[in-house]
Amino acid sequence: MLIPDHTFKPAPFLGSQLAVLLTLIFSLAIAPQAVAQCGPNITLTANQWSMVGVPCQPGPSNTIGDIFGPSLNAPDYAVTWIVWKRIYDAPAQCSVASGPADCYIKLTLTDTVNTGDAFWIFTTVSATLNLSAVGASDTPGPQFQFPATLSTDGSSRYYLFANPYKAAVTGPNLVFPTSIFGFFPFAASAQQAVNFSIISQNVHYWNGNTYFTQDITTNAATFVPKQAAWLEMLRPNPNFIPFSDVRVPDPGAP
Amino acid sequence: MNLNSALTVMVAIVTLGVNPLSARDLERGEWSVRLLLSSSDGKLEDTYNRLGQLHDASDGFDRYDLPELDQSWAGTYLSVIFYRPQWETDRESFNTDFHPKVRRARDEWYFEVRSDDPYRELSLTWVGKRTRMKRMVLVDLEESEVLPAVIDGVPQVYNFIMNGPVREFVWRVLTRREYAEFLASGELGTPSAVSTSAASPGVTASTQKTRFRSVATDDRTTDEKVKRAKSGWLPRGWGRGEGKGYRHSAIPNGLPDDPFAD
Fold it and tell me: Are residues A123 and A143 in the same domain?
């Protein structure tokens, strides 16, 4: 007499499905979470200056060491890599009359980093910059206000602009909120901002060995996450346009 | 309609009256050529300079001519520039240079290659509409070499070694007569010591070397103009960012030569 074997023996096909399921559960429950990236990684070439921007929202650990250290090795700071930042000109515009380093400051590992900040980084070792300390889902909101102001003299006022979002932004995406005659709010497009001398049409990019220029009124002026470019704020008629901001709408917003 | 709406309409009307700025799509009869410069080790490149003819461009500075910031502050640099110090008071170098559309007439663009390494080995080539480039040549003013832009429809590559931090070139559109003279010079297609080759991988083109003959002798005015433009502008300490010929931008001069310096 055959005695039925009640011991559970799954069929081979069912067993493989179960293994996959268990593996999935294990990886979700136990394995460390994959680090979210904010936009594509960029590569820093050895022995070159690079213009780097910080997109998304850094968490509470937001120092130079926290943000760039994992990619560039924090203990090697000031040995193989270094970060400089442009001084923003309050109240006067920065000039270089007294020396080449006046407009820049060398940062330390403990200096803080915020969304949309942009830096010059020099590294003697090629490295991939993934900004793993910056979360992919933490955007700075639907409308990022870039801290640029109009020129106060006849020369251009340069701002190192960084895309604050994880998706690319183009020049025509930018908005320049202003107030005509100081009373009537008006959100100028990039083309209108150029026409009114709020901003120059020229966006200056750096490829590691040369500058090149794109027209901000065209989609050729693309701001890729983690990269930076120079914007030139100008001086329109102060009675007509007394101020203007630079606003970046979230390209991922519906 | 309130005043705010009226102003918005006014601004919109003003904007509509302005043509789109540079980098717009080319219209019929217009053309552009993009210059592609790279070092032989493949580490450095400048592929962003454009020249050409547009219906509403001008011979001097216009809205299609985008300035280029100085790069000589960087320890290592390589750049193609259109050096036009006479155009604007605070701009000297340009990324693009567009001229008005002219038919069957000569036209030319003077440009420079600048390199921190005075002996760097470089390749210069270009992209554009090949049929348009048929009557165009590259002139190396230092070597007095003339290279056809295309041979059998294939864009050429000019390999050269810097001999100093600046090398001067002219991109020239020949008239039909000049082009005929150029062909009749008999040197088109003559192999030579100057290494030039087809731009497209896998496409073979005969190497070229053509002396700057009939074209050059007919063009004293241009060469003299080039020399005038050159003389006196190279400042002392060129290549170290010290010259007064550099624009007064806070950007190019702002970073230190030694990044790690205190």
Answer: no
Q: Say if the ipTM goes beyond 0.85.
A: no
Residue B257's pLDDT is 76
Same domain for A241 and A146, yes or no, is: yes
Q: Are residues A163 and A209 in the same domain?
A: yes
From A72, A101, A134, give the residue that closes a domain: A134
pLDDT value of position A147: 84
Of the three residues A91, A111, A134, the one that is the final residue of a domain is A134
How many alpha carbons lie under 13 Å from residue B236 in its C-beta half-sphere? Answer: 0
| Tokens 């600048």, located at residue | B114
* A20 within a domain of the structure (yes/no): no
B7 contact residues in A (CB cutoff 8 A): 180, 184, 186
Distance CA B140, CA B68 (A): 22
Domain residues for the domain of A169 are 139-249
Q: Is residue A26 part of a domain?
A: no
> Both A171 and A243 in a single domain?
yes
Instruction: Please report residues of A whose CB lies closer than 8 A to that of B45.
Output: 207, 209
**Element housing A15 (H / E):** helix A12-29
Mean per-residue pLDDT, B10-33: 62
Q: Are residues A127 and A143 in the same domain?
A: no
- Mutate which of B41, B112, B249 to disrupt the A interface (most A C-beta within 10 Å)? B249
Q: Which of A72, A204, A212, A216 has the highest number of chain B CBs within 10 A, making it the mutation to test binding with B? A: A212
In this structure, the answer to whether residues A150 and A240 fall within a common structural domain is yes
Kindly provide the b/e burial profile for residues B120-132, where b requires at least 16 CB atoms within 10 angstroms of the residue's own CB.
bebbbbbebeeeb
How does pLDDT run across B60-105, given as a tens digit for each residue?
999 999 999 988 888 899 999 999 999 987 788 999 999 999 988 8
Segment-wise mean pLDDT, segments of 10 residues, chain A, 254 residues: 45 56 52 62 94 91 94 96 81 49 81 94 94 76 89 80 94 96 94 95 95 96 95 91 94 84
Query: What is the rounded distance in angstroms from the CA atom of residue B102 to the CA atom of residue B93?
Result: 24
